[in-house]
Amino acid sequence: MFEAFDATLIARIQFAFTVSFHIIFPAFSIGLASYLAVLEGLWLWKNDDVYLELFNFWKTIFAVAFGMGVVSGIVMSYQFGTNWSVFSDKAGPVIGPLMGYEVLTAFFLEAGFLGVMLFGLNRVGPRLHFLATAMVAFGTLISATWILAVNSWMQTPAGFSVNEAGQFVPVDWWAVIFNPSFPYRLVHMVLAAYLTTAFVVGACGAWHLLRNTAPRRARTMFSMAMWMAAIVAPIQIFAGDQHGLNTLEHQPAKVMAMEGHYQSHPDGAPLILFGIPNSADKRVDYAIEIPKLSSLILKHSLDAPLAGLDTVPEQLQPPVGIVFWSFRVMLLMGFSMLGIGLWSLWCRHRGTLHTNDWLHRIAVIMGPSGFVAVLAGWITTEVGRQPYTVYGHLMTADSVSPIEAPAVGASLIAFIMVYFLVFGAGTFYILRLMARLPRDTLPELGEGPIRTAGVAPGPAQPHGGQHGH
């Protein structure tokens, strides 16, 4: 059934499928590891058991997400040898050591301290246990740093030469790692991970506020998540703008596709809000646009000229439709997060943060928004880089292994079946864990009538004080 297909296209679809499943778990675990460190730090500082209870609740979810991230990442690495062996041969001298450093400095650090974080509180004591939690969080950030260094080098390669065999050979590791897009890409991704986690935690807290289960813990979760949304969302929008300006400098064709600029605009380019890209006729149909705003955003001048895809050879243009829409999905999620953050500030100011049911309902709906934004952002980045794997130097068509389409198609079907079964079950288990936040054992003032004559008949409550389980 795959004989009529192009092997390169199927290999790209397979890698896109596996990396899409993989990225959602690190995006969650990077932010969640830092959240766990904050929770334990607050517990040690304030001596308030609610933070320890939330730590114990989220550390189980972190362990599951971390395990699924590791498994999905291993599968991706195999594809470098099976489907992309030519790329591995040519770019291996650069990306191989960087990925090795990721394992040595980050994954070993995470794995080494993970057991202590999960099981060692009563064995090593609170302070050493907090150090272990901080090291796990630090390890996730270092892991992201190395992986983003690899990806950024593929986007904006620097610090290399090409030997007689056609391989990329590093000549300046500093320039390789800190290539032109690396700082912007790293900041953008880490902030995205924090926002992803914040909206998952916020959705969980909002869910339990709506159900009135564990109100104190739910309020703490929701409040912390909304602070993160209100503070980080505007910073992320600014960081994304700076990343876009960097992309315009080094990958202008990608920005042209993101903006839908098929034609050059010598007197100021419009910002196309929505429309249907028509690559056959080189225009955006039914475009809703704001005149000259794109020039103002990208060049800080209303009349600044902007080049279009008519200045790029057609065989070097990225697929406009995918990049155009994925970029807008990312922006929609980002500004929706900003809106929720600002709404939460208003509710906090009015004292209704924990009683506004509409805010809680929208927060539950926005729970997956971080994952959607991350996926849309990666699609924009990776599809916008086409037709290159190493931008400007190595074409995707020249990177694929000598493979047949039916073989790649068969493995793609197997991946789809296994991934949806295994990771679907894992995701379902995580959602079940989130829905089982233990109830507070005693009612708090203002949450029900105070019965001075005794406890009214009703279901038996577990013993153990206000913070018992």
UniProtKB/TrEMBL annotation:
Main location: membrane
InterPro entries recorded: Cyt-d_ubiquinol_oxidase_su_1
Zinc among keywords: no
Subcellular location: Cell inner membrane; Cell membrane
Domain of life: Bacteria
Presence of the UniProt keyword Transmembrane in the record: yes
GO cellular component: cytochrome complex; plasma membrane
GO biological process annotation, one example: aerobic electron transport chain
Pfam families reported for this sequence: Cyt_bd_oxida_I
Span list, region Disordered: 448-469
Coiled-coil segments: none
Bilayer-spanning residue ranges: 23-45, 57-78, 98-121, 128-149, 186-210, 222-239, 322-346, 358-379, 408-431
Family of the protein in this entry: Belongs to the cytochrome ubiquinol oxidase subunit 1 family.
Name of the protein in its database record: Cytochrome D ubiquinol oxidase subunit I
Protein's organism: Sinorhizobium alkalisoli
